[in-house]
UniProtKB/TrEMBL annotation:
<dbReference type="InterPro" id="IPR013320">
    <property type="entry name" value="ConA-like_dom_sf"/>
</dbReference>
<feature type="signal peptide">
    <location>
        <begin position="1"/>
        <end position="34"/>
    </location>
</feature>
<feature type="region of interest" description="Disordered">
    <location>
        <begin position="589"/>
        <end position="623"/>
    </location>
</feature>
<feature type="domain" description="LamG-like jellyroll fold">
    <location>
        <begin position="629"/>
        <end position="769"/>
    </location>
</feature>
<dbReference type="InterPro" id="IPR011047">
    <property type="entry name" value="Quinoprotein_ADH-like_sf"/>
</dbReference>
<protein>
    <submittedName>
        <fullName>LamG-like jellyroll fold domain-containing protein</fullName>
    </submittedName>
</protein>
<dbReference type="Pfam" id="PF13385">
    <property type="entry name" value="Laminin_G_3"/>
</dbReference>
<dbReference type="InterPro" id="IPR001791">
    <property type="entry name" value="Laminin_G"/>
</dbReference>
<keyword id="KW-1015">Disulfide bond</keyword>
<dbReference type="InterPro" id="IPR013431">
    <property type="entry name" value="Delta_60_rpt"/>
</dbReference>
<feature type="compositionally biased region" description="Low complexity">
    <location>
        <begin position="604"/>
        <end position="623"/>
    </location>
</feature>
<dbReference type="InterPro" id="IPR006558">
    <property type="entry name" value="LamG-like"/>
</dbReference>
<dbReference type="Pfam" id="PF17164">
    <property type="entry name" value="DUF5122"/>
</dbReference>
<keyword id="KW-0732">Signal</keyword>
Length: 785
């Protein structure tokens, strides 16, 4: 096959090395924060991730077409077999083309035409009576048909009255009642010159005068319903009709003249190693997908453009080539191999590289790209629909799905994948809207490890149970219950909460038993369920020490909890290398040089931790997490250092210095505070005041739609309205040090020398009133500042 597709994806050279970041949404999210939880989760979608039983093939599928209850399929394969049948069993011959019932997935045995070579594109006549197929073949059902044929949609017979032919590959086809448009790599049709574009009579196949030109292959065409006299085309070309058109463009369907198509000025792929690979339309919008294997252009995912004129509506700056799209029910389903979709809230870059091979994005703009090739431009957030496809071996290109199509009820994927959701299902698979699906895709997690709780007695006398979040292929928000009892059947639910998760963001979940029986060693389990009622219960764990009597409450700690902290490291342990997270599930690991049990900041008798400035990063979380775009971070510090240092930040490393870092609060040599994020550039706030005066100070940084605001001792000291997010990535919260290369007013050392107390993070922008209330709860001006 002449399909120059890159493998497996371009390194993310466009991401700045100054500041790559990410964090998980850790800890239990209770009912008080339900609205915030929903905002952070991937939105629910119309589709179930249940892989419905579907006929299988032994090669690769390149194109699909749904007409009524039939799915027509073409590609390169020699046989079909029923769903569930192993290769070599139950097979019937099918030569590069077949049809199956979209409602049952069963092969339609009465429709069995034969192509002598690969099929690449399909279209139906408006009345549904014909199926047009194009590709590399020269014979259909034993009848000579050079790369273009019309088949009876009911019987599969060649429509003998339609006779058209091209001298080389035809890749795409669009049909109207009277005209069939062809696009590909050909130079003649019907024996007459045609440069990669042509039109023939729908009744006879005779060549029509329509003759626009392209300087390289046409790979896709679509005729939007809202602009019937317009044909949008895409491919490898850089010119249409001799004028610049970088991978996509628009033509008059009657004259072939070039029409305005603005999107190609912002979003383009073209040349031998890149292309706008596919097009689809919902009538008023055209969706395009691209690939770029070290070629010319900037698109590897999906764009949406107005059908009339091509004005860009949104573009997703994910990295990982994308081969097909299909709009339905308010989403656009795409297939490819996204390995970094962090710019619009999808899977961030992983090590080793991990891929999401099918996504559903909202059909309308719903977010803004952060980082990537389109930072700052409108994008579309992924939906909670994450089927798992494995790569096939047929093409040798390590891909899974190449084609997606469907209707308002079903979405059908085709390609070379051997399994879907861990079950054998080769080459073809169906998914349905939730109302037609069994909805059996439930929470996923290991019962003996992920969901077996780790139990800790908190200073309040309560018991914290932490687990690794489960994830679900079609539900982003899962419900967790903490069960106390000797067996699952006899247990009592003592805590309930919800958490958002995905396969790339399996945060820690903390559930707290508020009234454990004093003096006992109870057994706990965690049960997790999704919106469809699918349930998973982890193994039990026994508390290793008797439950102590409850401790006295803290006014400051209560204020932090009331405002929704998802992490709260009090740093008040008397000894050891643990920094307990009393709000979430992500404890700190402290360097042995850290001094424990020094006098604290917040007026409630808890102690603090002293950092000597000798360790590059004296305290760090250990669970990799996806960095928030909306957040607040709060800390208390006390120092007389004249060499500065980082108080808190987020970095890519769990040990040692990070190669990517962001979301910092640090001191300059002269004691000024700098708070900043990287969002298309370094964006910071620097205080006028100096705070290396040997007194305790509260510092808070908030980031979100309101920009970045820095507070010291309850009062705002600066704001940067342009810092509305941070660099997407996966990493760890780091306290007392980490890299700062490339950031302004760098201190002499990044390691902080002084005391740190009560560090908290929040999944929201704290208000000025909340920040001031925390300062007052800690003693306000009575604190030794």
């Amino acid at each position: 096959m002449s399909l120059a597709v890159r493998l497996p994806g371009r390194a993310v050279a466009a991401l700045a090395t100054i500041a790559l970041t990410g964090s998980a949404l850790l800890g239990l999210v209770g009912p008080a924060h339900a609205d915030d939880l929903t905002a952070r989760a991937l939105p629910s979608g119309p589709l179930s991730a249940d892989a419905l039983p579907t006929v299988q093939i032994d090669g690769v599928v390149w194109a699909q077409l749904v007409v009524g209850d039939r799915v027509y399929v073409t590609g390169e394969f020699t046989s079909a077999r029923p769903a569930g049948a192993a290769a070599g069993t139950g097979e019937v011959p099918r030569s590069n083309i077949l049809a199956y019932d979209v409602t049952t997935g069963a092969l339609i045995s009465s429709w069995a035409p034969s192509l002598n070579s690969t099929g690449l594109g399909l279209a139906a006549s408006p009345d549904g009576s014909r199926v047009y197929v194009v590709g590399n073949f020269t014979s259909v059902n034993g009848v000579t048909r050079n790369r273009v044929a019309a088949l009876d949609a009911a019987t599969g017979a060649v429509v003998t009255s339609f006779a058209a032919g091209a001298d080389y590959r035809v890749r795409s086809v669009v049909a109207t009642a009277d005209t069939v448009y062809l696009g590909g790599a050909f130079s003649s049709v019907g024996g007459a010159p045609r440069s990669r574009l042509a039109a023939v009579s729908a009744s006879t196949g005779a060549l029509l005068p329509w003759a626009p030109t392209a300087d390289a292959e046409i790979m896709a065409m679509v005729r939007p319903a809202s602009t019937p006299d317009q044909l949008v085309v895409a491919g490898r070309f850089s010119t249409l009709n001799g004028s610049p058109a970088l991978g996509s463009g628009a033509l008059s369907a009657t004259t072939g003249a070039t029409r305005p198509w603005a999107v190609q000025e912002r979003v383009n792929d073209y040349g031998a190693k890149a292309a706008v690979y596919s097009l689809s339309s919902d009538g008023s919008t055209v969706y395009g997908t691209g690939y770029n294997y070290y070629g010319t252009g900037n698109l590897e995912n999906t764009f949406a453009a107005a059908a009339d004129g091509g004005t860009l509506k949104w573009v997703n700056g994910c990295f990982g080539d994308t081969y097909s799209s299909f709009p339905t029910n308010g989403v656009v389903v795409v297939v490819g191999h996204a390995h970094n979709c962090a710019p619009v809230g999808g899977n961030p870059q992983q090590t080793p590289w991990t891929f999401q091979r099918s996504y559903a994005f909202g059909a309308e703009a719903s977010t803004t790209n952060v980082g990537g090739n389109f930072s700052g431009l409108p994008g579309s957030k992924p939906r909670a629909w994450l089927p798992t496809l494995t790569v096939g071996s047929y093409t040798g290109q390590s891909q899974a799905a190449w084609s997606v199509s469907g209707d308002s009820r079903y979405v059908v994927l085709g390609g070379e994948f051997p399994t879907v959701n861990g079950k054998a299902q080769q080459g073809l698979v169906r998914f349905a809207v939730r109302s037609l699906a069994p909805n059996k895709q439930g929470p996923i997690g290991k019962l003996s490890t992920d969901l077996k709780p780790t139990l800790t007695v908190l200073p309040s006398g309560t018991v914290r149970a932490t687990v690794t979040a489960a994830w679900d292929r079609d539900d982003a928000i899962l419900t967790y219950e903490l069960l106390r009892g000797s067996s699952a059947a006899s247990s009592t639910v003592v805590a309930t909460g919800r958490q958002t998760s995905t396969w790339w963001n399996r945060a820690g979940v903390a559930l707290v038993d508020p009234n454990p029986p004093v003096g006992t060693t109870p057994t706990y389990r965690v049960r997790v369920s999704d919106a469809s009622g699918n349930v998973l219960t982890g193994n039990g764990a026994v508390l290793g020490v008797p439950v102590p009597a409850a401790g006295a409450p803290s006014r400051y700690a209560a204020a932090v909890a009331a405002d929704g902290a998802d992490h709260f490291w009090r740093l008040d342990e008397a000894s050891g290398n643990l920094g307990l997270d009393t709000a979430g599930a992500d404890d700190l690991s402290l360097d042995p040089s850290a001094g424990r049990g020094t006098a604290g900041a917040t007026g409630d008798g808890d102690t603090a931790t002293t950092f000597t400035g000798s360790a590059p990063v004296p305290a760090t979380t250990t669970r990799a997490a996806t960095g928030p775009q909306v957040f607040s971070v709060e800390a208390w510090f006390r120092t007389t250092s004249t060499t500065g240092g980082k108080i808190v930040g987020f970095g890519t490393a769990s040990t040692g210095a990070s190669s990517g870092y962001d979301r910092h609060v640090y001191l300059t040599n002269d004691g000024r505070l700098v708070a900043g994020t990287y969002s298309g550039g370094v964006r910071t706030v620097t205080s006028a005041g100096r705070y290396n005066d040997g007194r305790w100070h509260q510092v808070v940084m908030t980031v979100g739609s309101g920009g970045l605001t820095a507070y010291v001792d309850g009062i705002a000291v600066g704001r940067n309205a342009s810092a509305t997010g941070a660099q997407p990535m996966t990493g760890f919260w780091r306290i007392g040090g980490d890299s700062l290369a490339g950031w302004p007013a760098q201190p002499a050392t990044t390691a902080f020398a002084g005391r740190v107390d009560d560090v908290a993070t929040y999944p929201t922008e704290l208000t000025a009133a909340q920040v001031a209330r925390h300062f007052t709860a800690a003693g306000g001006n009575s604190v030794s500042r």
